[in-house]
Specification:
rod-shaped; 5-stranded mixed β-sheet; 11 helices; 5-stranded antiparallel β-sheet; Heat Shock Protein 90; alpha+beta
């Protein structure tokens, strides 16, 4: 900001330049005119006045003739009052009459006064007219430029005007360039091209406007990004809920059907169905609030939280006809989003079930280490397809891709949940003997 100047400074600078240019042109005109006089190109303004006595002296001689009058004089020759020769315009007849009566008369002009002098020699009268101004020494030039000073000053004025226009055009160019920066930024914002190249100005006022526009663009970008992220989050949340809600619905339907057939275990089936209803209520609440997964408060992974997760997995395995084996049951002081992690576990268990034979065992373990907390889900299926193993976290990629059933959202949802809980999803085949796949969710403490 210290090196920036104001527009007042810019305009003042050009005003001072113009003032100096005017002074320069006045001095230049004066010096040039003196150079022309000193080099003999132009006679001084009083030259005709000084030589008028010479004309009178020559006129009084007996051998005088009209050719002895210098070229820069106009004249009128009379004999006994009759005009013999005349080069003076008739509009000056009054001044000629005054000169004949008084010997001299004049007529003021803007540049160079006209002077009339009358000389008498017997019956003859000679009236000469000349201007008090500089005179070209060349007769041919004088025929073209009779009023040299007028032409000279007009020429100097034209030179000054050219310089003035040049200075003004430079000032205008600078101002137009600065205004173009503002216009360019406004056009970019109007087209919502908010990543436009930021312009800088050396002038305080323009820089302030550009900074304001830049701040407005950044705010608008942040607002649009927030709105876009909100829409994207809402879309992903709806996709996630639409995908995950199928499991509690399946649990409810499956347990209700089993209630009809198995009257002995009514309480156990009712509890499983109630668990599915509670999870449905949770999903409906998320839809109602449009809340993001990251906005839910986290809680310590206690035994109660582990029981909640195991209860969900047990219900799914029991309904699908699978056995459940718990490898480890470690609680931890790490804080996680209980409900979102339950969705992740549910998706991993469903994925394991889909790729395993009915009656096989699903393994789950909870491991608490010094630096991280790990949840493992393992199955006894044929393992993951190596062709798509590294793409399984992407949307719409499924282990069933080669069965023309491309619908996978589960692992992409798991990945999204782990991102909000500082976790990482690791996938691999348990071994090369067809003993199933293993999915690990590793959370850094």
């Amino acid at each position: 900001m210290g090196n920036k100047k104001s527009l007042t400074y810019l305009i003042s600078r050009f005003a001072i330049l113009e003032l100096f240019f005017v002074i320069f042109m006045i001095l230049f005109s004066y010096i040039l005119l003196n150079v022309l006089i000193n080099t003999g190109i132009v006679y001084p303004a009083n030259y005709a006045e000084m030589n008028s006595d010479t004309v009178k002296y020559e006129f009084l001689k007996e051998d005088w003739n009209i050719d002895k009058i210098p070229f820069f004089y106009e004249y009128q020759l009379r004999d006994n009052g009759e005009i013999i020769q005349n080069t003076i315009d008739e509009r000056y007849n009054q001044e000629i009459s005054e000169a004949l009566q008084n010997g001299k008369s004049s007529k003021d002009q803007i540049i160079g006064s006209d002077v009339f002098k009358a000389f008498k020699n017997g019956n003859k009268d000679l009236i000469i007219k000349y201007k008090i101004c500089a005179i070209p020494t060349n007769p041919n030039v004088y025929k073209i430029i009779r009023n040299f000073e007028l032409v000279f000053y007009i020429s100097m004025f034209c030179l000054w005007l050219i310089g003035f226009i040049y200075l003004i055009s430079n000032l205008t160019r600078i101002l137009r360039c600065e205004i173009r920066k503002i216009s360019k930024a406004n056009d970019s914002i109007e087209k919502l091209q908010l990543e436009f190249e930021r312009e800088h100005s050396d002038y305080i006022e323009i820089s302030g406007i550009l900074d304001s526009i830049d701040s407005m663009a950044r705010s608008l970008k942040a607002s649009l990004e927030k709105q876009w992220n909100m829409q994207t989050t809402q879309k992903e949340m709806i996709e996630s809920i639409t995908h995950d809600v199928r499991t509690p619905i399946t649990l409810i339907k499956g347990n209700i059907e089993l209630l009809k057939e198995d009257q002995e275990n009514v309480l156990e089936r009712a509890e499983d169905a109630l668990s599915g209803v509670e999870r449905l209520e949770y999903f409906l609440k998320k839809l109602n609030d449009f809340s993001d997964l990251t906005e839910v408060p986290k809680e310590v992974v206690s035994k109660g939280v582990l029981d909640y997760w195991i209860k969900i997995v047990t219900s799914i395995c029991k309904l699908k006809g699978f056995s459940l084996s718990i490898l480890s049951y470690d609680a931890s002081n790490i804080k996680l989003d209980k409900n979102s992690i339950s969705i992740a576990i549910q998706n991993l268990v469903n994925n394991a079930i889909e790729n395993s034979s009915v009656g096989s065992t699903i393994f789950i373990g909870f491991y608490d280490d010094i630096d991280d907390y790990t949840i493992v889900v393992r199955d006894q299926g044929d393992g993951l397809n190596n062709d798509i193993l590294y793409n399984l976290r992407e949307k719409y990629v499924s282990t069933k891709m080669y069965d023309n059933n491309i619908h996978g959202l589960g692992l992409s949802i798991v990945t999204k949940i782990l991102e909000t809980n500082k976790g990482q999803l690791l996938l691999k085949n348990y071994d090369n003997q067809g003993n199933g796949a293993e999915a690990k969710m590793v959370f850094k403490k």
